[in-house]
Write a structure and sequence with these properties.
single chain, 236 residues, mainly alpha, Rossmann fold, Tyrosyl-Transfer RNA Synthetase, 2 domains, two-stranded parallel ribbon, 10 helices, 2 strands
Length: 236
């Protein structure tokens, strides 16, 4: 892998976290895009399920693949593309009033697929809001826009329209919006959480998946490493 310090320092997530935690700028933070790229390229992944916030990392993965192929004049590493089922990359906002939903920033502002209805409702009701619009059709501040963005993922168009109209008319009650959002998120995630719980209880199935996955990953990685070593000129 050929990754340059300068390009790693220009990564948006590195700059954001370095600014936020100036006393903890470490090699792990700097080289995270390389680790992510290696995880993809070692298995010759071509379609990667990522969100909008990982778009730059995936672009760097393609850069590393092209660079390696060019330097060693062999077409070994594919250039992966982002993949999702709706045709566009999205970024799910957090409940803290700004940015994306992230476990690393604040667990209380992140929604987990395994959260119980009670936990989900508690998190949503504590989401950051403001005192409300002061004029008609006012632009939403980021914290409020985040709640509406979440609603677009789980609520019906009619529901969203009702709250948009109330906001624009300065008649919105954030408590009502949060209750509706919580109910819609719970409805949306319940089948997923139930499936997670069913799988967690099936030890035999989990052990089987772990064993088969390990074997496939080892074989896939081994094949790629042999090709890479040969191209670079390393003997076994």
């Amino acid at each position: 892998m050929h990754a340059y310090k300068g390009e790693l320092e220009r990564v948006t997530t590195f700059k954001e976290k370095a600014k936020k935690h100036p006393d903890n700028i470490n090699a792990g933070l700097l080289t995270y895009p390389v680790l992510m790229a290696a995880d993809i390229l070692i298995h010759k992944g071509t379609k990667v399920p990522v969100g909008k916030d990982q778009e730059q990392h995936l672009e760097m993965t393609r850069t590393f693949a092209k660079r390696f192929n060019h330097i060693y004049k062999q077409d070994i590493l594919p250039e992966p593309q982002a993949f999702n089922t709706i045709g566009e990359l999205i970024k799910v906002p957090g409940l803290g009033g700004s940015g994306k939903m992230s476990k690393s920033d604040d667990e209380s502002t992140a929604i987990y697929l395994k959260d119980s209805p009670k936990e989900l409702e508690k998190k949503i009701m504590r989401a950051v809001t403001d005192s409300g619009p002061t004029k008609r059709n006012q632009k939403k501040p980021e914290a409020i826009e985040n709640l509406f963005s979440l609603m677009k993922h789980v609520s019906s168009l009619d529901t969203i329209t009702v709250f948009e109209e109330k906001y624009n008319a300065m008649a919105i009650r954030y408590g009502d919006l949060k209750k509706q959002l919580a109910a819609d998120i719970i409805h949306y995630l319940t089948p997923i959480r139930d499936k997670i719980e069913d799988i967690r209880k099936n030890d035999a199935y989990l052990k089987k998946v772990l064993k088969e996955g390990t074997e496939k990953a080892r074989e896939s990685a081994g094949n790629t490493l042999r090709e890479v070593r040969k191209a670079v000129g390393f003997s076994h």
